[in-house]
Amino acid sequence: MAKYLLLKHYRGAPAAVNDVPMDRWTPEEISAHIQYMNDFAARLEKTGEFVDGQALAPEGTFVRYDGEGRPPVTDGPFPETKDLIAGWMVIDVDTYDRAVALAGELSAAPGAGGKPIHEWLELRPFLTAPPTVTE
Amino acid sequence: MDAELLRRLTPSVIGVLVRRGADFAAAEDAVQDALVEAVRHWSADPPRDPKGWLVTAAWRKFLDATRAETARRRREDLADEEPAPGPASAADDTLQLYFLCAHPSLTPSSAVALTLRAVGGLTTRQIARAYLVPEATMAQRISRAKRTVSGVRFDRPGDVATVLRVLYLVFNEGYSGDVDLAAEAIRLTRLLAARVDHPEAAGLLALMLLHHARRAARTTPDGGLVPLAEQDRGRWDTALISEGVGILQAALARDRLGEFQAQAAVAALHADAPTAEETDWTQIVEWYDELVRLTDSPVVRLNRAVAVGEAEGPRAGLAALAELDVSLPRHTAVTAYLHERDGDLATAARLYAEAARKASNLPERDHLNRQAARLNTREPR
Predict the structure, then answer these.
(1) Domain count for chain A
(2) Helices B72-81 and B50-69, interaxial angle, to 10°?
(3) Which pTM value belongs to this model?
(4) I need a labelling partner for B266 at 20 to 30 A (CA). Which of B54, B59, B243, B368 fits?
């Protein structure tokens, strides 16, 4: 089993095929989208492949140490150009192929017009410790 | 083996040990050890006086532990202090625990965790699950809190207002996992209100009951928000409402108004309206005026602007909003709502979408996105 992180971006990923902002969808389309995401997570819980999922607020701040006795420096909210993570889901699957297949399913969540968004999700494997050999 | 009985007795047994001079952390450990003994022995040989049994067992455990750790001299001092055997004192030791757990030296999150552990008798695992943190993290938080209050002596009553604030924090955490924190907060506030003569204890209990009464109607089966005006009032718990209103009226009659009572009064006026349209907004505005006077909180002023918008029309509401800082949570959402009521749908839609981006929780964000979508995709007239 290996864990993978599925990253959803507010910005920084290539544009989705069905790229319409959510406030231009109908309320029913929004409901269908949320239902799809919930069903997807519930299904992965049943197969034992779901680990965690969280959504992030759009505001982010870069912070840096600024020397002894000084408060950390912040560069304020992310400027428009920076990459922005909207949320993540962690899955624990048997193969890379399975991870790709699941990411593909998640990217097919319905959007405007009830059609799949085809958004780009980033798929990242977790680094793991080498297996411990025990007697 | 009656787990519920044990949970109920735990805080007062800890309280007895603390009052006899045991350090809080040591008292809690000793009581945990005594509970293990109880689980082992009670099914075969149930005691006639369970609390007395637990106090005796816990006090012995405490002495054993103290003996193991400190010098002979200290042990002898304590042994001298051991009270004569007999029925456990009827003094209310649980109350002392409330004050200890809400001690001002603790951060709010530590105070909440310690209260749930010591007064509520919840396990560390249950508290960790309710707060969605690993059990080890919660264990650390609790033991750090215990260290902080270790050595604090309780010879006089603490500040009821601080305890109430901690219980209010517990209530607002809602629920997840197998512990319903709102229900737990109500249980603990009920116990507290029965013990202290403080109108705000009654006020907080009334407020919790009135909010809790609406809980079933507040969300859709899949977790979506249902605004107050759209809630199915038939699903409100009328027994809880009448209990809350009764408690509130008794508290108000004592003429020592505080912010919890004023908030409960607002909740009671909502609960009282047979339909959203029949809500007595004029009286609600008056209660918000009281709240502004009592707290001068910007959030209260924001809620007041909503009430003004309902009582005197959206323009009056927008005028009240204009005096407030736009960075307040929900400011944008409220502005959007008032513009919609005023008929400026384009501005409302833009502001709903902006409010959705600023929302701090998922159901709220989804709700605001739907509001924007509803206005943006409506049939042109």
Answers:
(1) 1
(2) 160
(3) 0.83
(4) B368
Placement of tokens 């502005």 in the chain? B335
Residue A130 domain-assigned (yes or no): no
Domain containing A41 — which CATH number?
3.30.70.1060
- Domain holding A54, by residue range, is 2-125
Out of A30, A38, A58, the one facing B369 most closely (by C-beta) is: A30
- Chain B interface residues (partner A, CB cutoff 8 A): 222, 224, 349, 352-353, 356-360, 362, 365-366, 369-370, 372-374, 376-377
Kindly report the nearest CA distance between residue A25 and chain B, in angstroms: 6
Closest CA to A39 of A26, A50, A28, A55: A50
Q: List the pLDDT tens digit at each of the 381 positions of chain B.
A: 677 888 888 888 998 888 888 888 888 889 989 988 898 888 888 889 999 999 999 999 999 888 877 655 555 565 555 554 444 444 567 888 899 899 988 999 899 999 999 998 888 998 998 888 899 999 999 999 999 988 776 666 678 999 999 999 999 886 555 678 999 999 999 999 998 889 999 999 999 999 999 999 999 887 888 999 999 999 999 999 999 999 999 999 999 999 999 999 999 999 999 999 999 999 999 999 999 999 999 999 999 999 999 999 999 999 999 999 998 989 999 999 999 999 999 999 999 999 999 888 888 999 999 999 999 988 665
Say yes or no for a CB contact (<8 Å) between A25 and B352: no
Tally: H helices and E strands in chain B: 20, 2
Nearest to A55 among B224, B352, B362 (CB): B362
Per the DSSP assignment, residues forming a β-bridge with B225 are B219
A135 is a domain residue: no
* A34 to chain B, closest Cα gap in Å: 8
Contacting residues for B89 by C-beta, under 8 A, at least 6 apart? B16
A133 located within any domain: no
Residue contact A38–B222, C-beta within 8 A: yes
d(CA B359, nearest CA chain A) in Å: 8
B352·A23 Cβ contact <8 A: yes
Q: Which of B356, B359, B377 sits opposite A26 (nearest CB)?
A: B377
Question: What ipTM was assigned to the predicted interfaces of this complex?
Answer: 0.81
For B253-260, the CB contacts below 8 A with 24+ separation are B254/B199, B256/B199, B257/B199, B257/B290, B257/B294, B258/B199, B258/B200, B258/B203, B258/B294, B259/B200, B259/B203, B259/B291, B259/B294, B259/B295, B260/B164, B260/B168, B260/B200, B260/B203, B260/B204, B260/B206, B260/B207
